[in-house]
Write a structure and sequence with these properties.
This protein has seven helices and ten strands. By secondary structure, it is an alpha/beta fold. It is elongated, with a radius of gyration of 18 Å.
């Protein structure tokens, strides 16, 4: 069984599609590839601003990212990658995107944005809290309030018409179950209950 997750796009040979991008799931569903009965918005996350562990940079809000202390900001590619799209949406809502867009160092994914901050190549980065939590080389300088952030949603669904569709539905059910939910929560994800 093929399992696609997080920020990867579904491929026709996939049995389960698990993404951090609700619009991408909508697109896959719109192409008739999703077993609609199995689709669930399973998880959520939080955006955080991170800085290198030894940084003295203080971030009290998005406007601080436009200040002179921040010359480069790592984001997952804001035109293509869910974490980057969410970060851009937050900064646009805060009316700071235009002020910082020339400072953005787009990364291939959220882990690459984290690595750029870990390496000290940028003064700050915007990543998911779950990614920040795995690093011992960065600290969270600012947690984006839920009221200011876009809704981060991780939908999951079985892919329609696959040879192992029944097994794929069971995988989706398992991921939506209490035991999996406890595991996701232990890694810092927000479990969305129906």
């Amino acid at each position: 069984m093929t399992f696609i997750h997080a920020e990867k796009q579904a491929k026709p040979e996939a049995d389960v599609f698990f993404s951090a991008d609700e619009p991408l799931m909508d697109k896959v569903a719109g192409e008739g590839l999703v077993d609609a009965a199995s689709r669930r918005s399973l998880l959520s996350n939080r955006l955080v601003v991170i800085v290198p562990l030894d940084s003295h940079l203080k971030v009290t809000g998005p406007a601080d990212l436009a200040g002179p202390a921040v010359q480069k900001i790592a984001l997952a590619d804001p035109n293509a990658v869910p974490a980057g799209k969410y970060a851009r949406a937050w900064l646009e809502k805060a009316h700071q995107w235009e002020a910082i867009r020339e400072r953005v160092v787009p990364a291939v994914d959220v882990r690459a944005a984290l690595a750029a901050v870990e390496a000290g190549g940028v003064e700050a980065g915007v990543v998911y809290s779950t990614d920040a939590a795995i690093s011992k080389k960065v600290r969270v300088a600012y947690e984006v309030p839920e009221s200011d952030a876009p809704l981060i949603s991780y939908p999951v669904a079985a892919i329609k018409g696959r040879p192992q569709q029944d097994a794929a539905r069971r995988v989706v059910d398992c991921l939506a179950g209490d035991e999996a939910g406890k595991t996701f929560e232990s890694f810092g994800f927000i479990v969305r209950h129906p």
